[in-house]
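Reviewers asked in the last cycle whether our approach scales beyond single polypeptides. To address this, we selected a multi-component target totalling 802 residues and predicted its structure end to end. The input consisted of the following lines:
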Amino acid sequence: MRTVEEHRAALVALVSALPPVTVALSESLGRVLAADVVAAVDLPGFDNSAMDGYAVRSADVAGASAAAPVLLDVDGDIAAGDTREHTLRPGATMRIMTGAPMPVGADAIVPVEEGDGGVERVALTLAAEAGRHLRRRGEDVRAGDVVLRAGVRVTPGRLALVAASNVAAVEVVARPRVHVLSTGDELVTVGHPLAHGQIVDSNGSMLAALVRASGGDLVGVGHLDDDADAWASLLADVPGEPDLLLTTGGVSMGAYDTVKEVLSGTGTVDFVKVAMRPGMPQGAGVVGPRRTPIITLPGNPVSSFVSFHVFVLPVLRALAGLDPEVALIRGVAAQGWSSVSGKVEFTRVVLDGDGVRPSGGQGSHMLGALAEATHLAVVDARTTEIRPGDPVHLLPLVGQD
Amino acid sequence: MRTVEEHRAALVALVSALPPVTVALSESLGRVLAADVVAAVDLPGFDNSAMDGYAVRSADVAGASAAAPVLLDVDGDIAAGDTREHTLRPGATMRIMTGAPMPVGADAIVPVEEGDGGVERVALTLAAEAGRHLRRRGEDVRAGDVVLRAGVRVTPGRLALVAASNVAAVEVVARPRVHVLSTGDELVTVGHPLAHGQIVDSNGSMLAALVRASGGDLVGVGHLDDDADAWASLLADVPGEPDLLLTTGGVSMGAYDTVKEVLSGTGTVDFVKVAMRPGMPQGAGVVGPRRTPIITLPGNPVSSFVSFHVFVLPVLRALAGLDPEVALIRGVAAQGWSSVSGKVEFTRVVLDGDGVRPSGGQGSHMLGALAEATHLAVVDARTTEIRPGDPVHLLPLVGQD
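The resulting structure, written as C-alpha cells, was:
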C-alpha cells in the first residue's frame, strides 16, 4: 500500500509547469507569474508632498511656533498633476497638495493645519525640519527593480504594485485545462427523475466547481457509461486536448469496475491502494496519443472530494507553476473524535472561533457533513484518537469564503 | 471625528440586499443563496452497499469465521446502477458492488475480502451482523429537508450536496454591480509615458481586482479629470446603472479636491474624517437620479486599499445578502511595531508559520509592502505598541491564495 506522500509525488511527476502566456494586467488577477516583473519607473516617480500644506525651505521656518509664527510670501499653488518644474525662492512658500511635485529648493512641508490659510502671505506655526512630510523619488521602488518574482500568484495588492510600476502586461503561466468525466451506469444528470438504483451524478458538478475554484479551465464535464467501446474511442482522442483528465468511479474492487479494467489494459495507468481514509483506491498515469495525464478518483462523492484536495490540487498547482504542496494550518480540537489506525484519515471539520470539530457524519457517502466543512483535518496513521485541546493539522478546502 | 464602526454602519445603511435571480447549479459557485434549498430526493435514495462484497441475511452467516466459513449459493450479481428489484432467498447470497441497491431480504454485507471469491458458491468468513456495511435510504438527507439555508455562499462541497439532492437550479442574490472611477489630473493610464508630476492610475486596476475578487460585477472602470462639468454629466446619468459607485482621490483637505467640492454641493454626500490610519478622509452618500450609493475613497493607493477592506467590502457583502462584518482571525505578533494613538491603525502584515509581522514600509504610498501583505492587523486606538508575543486581530485580504 502506498503512502499519501508517495502517491502524491508519483502524480506530480506526471506533469510540469505549463508554458507562459502574456496577458493584460487587468486579466492577470489570480494567475501565476511566469517571469519576474521589473518596474518601468521609480516609485514615487518624483519627490512629492505627503500632505496638503506649504512647501518650504526648512531654514526659512526654523524656530516657527504657535507663539512665534513665521510669515512667508505665497508664490502660487502646486496641484497634484502639475507637470511644470517650479522653483521656490528663498523666503517664500508655495501651497502644495498631497502627491504634487516638490518645487526645486524646497525641502519640507508644513501641513495646512499649521498655517493661517493665507493665500498671498501665510503665517506658519511649525518648524518643519528638512525632509518632513516628503516622499522621496524611488524610496519605494527603483526603475529596474524586480517588484514581483516569477512563481507568485497575482493578488489585488500585487496588481496595484505592477500597475504603479507602469507595467501594462505580464507573463503568466497558462491555466491548466481539465476534462472531468464521471463514470458509472447508475448516474443520472441532475434534475432528471431517478429510477430505483440510480443516483444523481453529483461528482461531475462538484469536480467542475473544484477545478474552477482552483484556477483551472474546464474543457469538458461529461459522463461515460461503463462500456469498453466508449472508453476506447475516448482514449483514441481525448476531447478538448486537456492537460489533465479527471475521472470518478470504477476503480475499486468490484467486478464491474470498468475504468480499472480498461485502463489497466493500456499499460500506462497504475491502480494502487493508498493508506488513507476515505479515498483508498486510486489510479493515475497517461492515456491516448498525446499521453494526457489522467487521475482516476473513487466514485464516492466524499472520497472524490477528499482525493481532489490531496492529489489533484497539487497536480493543478504544479501545472500552474506553483509549489505543489499546500501549507497546512494549525488548529486546536474543540471536540474529540476517533480515527482509523494504519491510514491517514482526512476528517471533514469546521474551524471557527471555538476551534476544530468534525462537521458531522464521516461516512464516505455523507454529503450533508461535507457541505458544512471548512477544512480537512489530516490525522496521521499512528493516531487513533483526537482529544479536545489536541493540536490538529488542517488543509483548507478550495473555494471557501 | 467618526469611529470606524460608525462610518461602516452609515455606509451599510445606504444599501440593502439585491433581488434574487435563478441560475443553473453549474453557475452558482461563489454566489449567495437567496432562498433555502430543499432536497428533491432522499440521500441515499435506496438502501445500498458500502462495500464491494456479498449481500447476505445476517442469520445465514452467524458464526462464520476463518476457521469455520459458511458456504452460500451465489444467486447472481448486483452492479451499481442495476435498476431491478432483486430478492435474496434464504441460504443464498448475491455479489454486490459499492453503491448497488440491496436485494430485498438482505440485511448485511460481507466484504469481498472475507470470501474465497467464488461466483457460483462462496465460502464467507465473517459473521456480519444486521446493518453491517449498509447505507440506509435517507440516512444523510430526507426529501423535503432544507439542505442549505438562504444567506450562505455556494462552495464546491455545498454544490455537491445540492446536486446530489437532485436540484438543478438555485435562487441566488444578484451580483453587486460596481463602477470604479479614479479621479485626478495627475493620473495616466498604465503603460503610457509619464511627464514630471504624473503618476500611473494604479487605483483603478487595484479596485477593479478587489471588486472582482469580492464577487462583484464591474460595469465600468474609468477616469474622470478634476473638472466640474465632467462630474455634472456623470451625476446626471451614472453609466452602467451600478449598485455602487466607487471613486478614488479628491477628498482630502487640499484646494483642488474636486470630488469633495462637487459632491458636497449635491447635499446627498457627506465628507467626514474617520479615526483610522491610513484612510482618514472618507465620503459617502447617494448621487444622481437613481440615488446611486457612492463611496469616495482617498487617492493614496494604500489608503484606498485599506478603505476598500474596511468599508467597501462590508457594503458589497450587504448587497450580496451576507453579514456585512468579516470575522477577524487571531494571530500572534512575531515582531513588534508601533501604532498611532487615537486612531485605529490598519497595519499591512504577513501572517505565516512564525506569526504576524509588518510587511514593510507603512507609508500610505508604499506599494511594495502592500504587495506582500496577507492581512491587515487591526490595532485599536488606545494601543501604541505591539510587542512580540502579543495577540493581534487580523482582517484577511481579499483575493489571497
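Chain B has eight helices and 27 strands. We regard this as preliminary and will revisit it once experimental data from Aim 1 are available.
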